[in-house]
Amino acid sequence: MSSYASQSRTIICARCKHRRRTKTTGSDLCARCEKVRSEERASITAEYETGNQQPPKYIHVRSYEESVCSGCSSFGPIYETDAQLCKTCHQKKLTRLSKDVLKVKVKCAVCHKLRRSVCLSEDICLPCYLARQNGVTLCIGCGKEKVIWVMKDGARCRYCYKDHAAPRSLKKFLDEYQGFNRKYLTDLLEPIKTAIDEKTNRRFRAFGKFLQQVTLADPLTWESVDEVMPAFGSKKQTNITNIRSCLLDLAYLRVSQGKLEKREDYLARRIVQNLVTQAPKHFQDQLRDYVDRRTTLKHAPSTMRYDLVSINPFLRWCDARQVKCISEVNEHMFEEYEQFLRWEWVCGSCNETVPYDVYGDTPMCRVCGIGVIKTHRYAYDTVKKDCNNIRSFFIWNERNGRGRNPVTVPSRDALTFRYYSDDIIQELATYAFSPDTRPLEGIVLYLTIFHAFSVWELIHALLPNGENGEPQALADAYCVLLQRRIGRHT
Q: For 405-445, what is each residue's pLDDT tens digit?
């Protein structure tokens, strides 16, 4: 007879006269009757101890020294003297030791593969043990021929049985669940309570254990959801994925019920708040008032986001120039920023870029050490959009008594003449005739100020040839030649 057969046997219980299976070898009582007899002996022993009488000889009484358990710190009988453990801790220790033994891989006596044993008395793996116990037949769940996991209520394989037991297991978990966020778990389970499998069971169990450790706002908000949202780590990725998905499902359930704003609106509003905090500190109060006013007027968060994307770079540009208030910005400073958006210096060798400064000299490349080239930075439409958004911010400040609007020139949607004050023209004329002026800049300023040359005329102007056919010097020429402009009348 095999060791498995000697481990369990069929008997006729001497007390209840029923056919039972038992694992004990020296008793003809089933487990239930053995437990009843032990309780009777304990009660009889207690009666004799109370009356100071000796119990009958057939009742074996074993006394245990009472002390504090080293495991659970409870006071009671000590079943293991050396380790000072009570009965419960002693049994947990034996179970833990038996599990540690089963963790060691051994050679299965049936399939001869190196696997963990499922029995202490025999080297046999779990698949072989189940195949010997239940056999291999058709599963009533998936209809495939597999090793049967459980025979009760129909032959089912491992996965089909887990799916079959999942609703009952999850219901038991929900009945025993105690926590502040219990209603969130029940609300999330209500729509899918008729379609629960093992995957759903594991998912909601992980979410329920997570809800016992955190606190969600009531009513639910996207801020509270993002605050408790766990981040992905190196361990238990499946549990984190289940928790994150359940949190989002719960939030979207509130959205469908009309109790929470849409996720897209919340993200747009959060982006606007982040843009306000990214601005220089001395401009943040003005930006918050500006955003609050736009919100009152029912402007979409996406519109305010696009406005702040244009305004924030201008405020940082002003802060770099020690401008701490919007009222300190003048018209020429705004035009300087407009040129800063429109142009940039680019190295023709390494493509290194340098910010453009209207009043600065042509810089040298910081990498190659050679001159850079002036090129377009942003397209005309992009510069126009950013400048218009900044003008709208200036107008709002002026209407709310935060300073005058520094930009008095209209938006240039088409080519128009621009007029400068006499002081600016005088400074440019003085610079044009200064000894330190570069020749090219001086002639351009001279032709522009005194002869009103346009940009196209400056590009196409030529000096006439002399008597010998060679180009004349600039000092000897008394005129410039311009070709006929196509599409224009001269």
A: 666 544 444 445 566 777 888 888 888 888 888 877 888 88
Tell me if residue 68 falls in helix, strand or coil: strand
pLDDT digits (tens, 9 = 90+) for 135-169: 888 999 888 988 888 888 889 998 899 999 999 99
Question: For the chain, how big is the Rg over CA atoms in Å?
Answer: 44
Q: Exposed e or buried b for every residue in 426-461, given b needs 16+ CB within 10 A?
A: eeeeeebeeeeeeeeebbbbbbbeeeebeeeeeeeb
CA-to-CA distance for 15 and 38, rounded, in angstroms? 13
Cross-strand bridge partners of residue 346: 353, 373
The rounded distance, in Å, linking the Cα atoms of 128 and 124 is: 7
pTM: 0.55
C-alpha to C-alpha distance for 97 and 99, rounded to whole angstroms: 5
Peptide bond into 219 cis (omega under 30): yes
Task: With beta carbons less than 8 A apart as the criterion, state whether 122 and 5 touch.
Answer: no
Q: Which of 296, 221, 287 is nearest to 259 (CA)?
A: 221
The whole-angstrom separation of Cα 227 and Cα 234 is: 20
Q: How far apart are CA 300 and CA 294, in angstroms?
A: 8
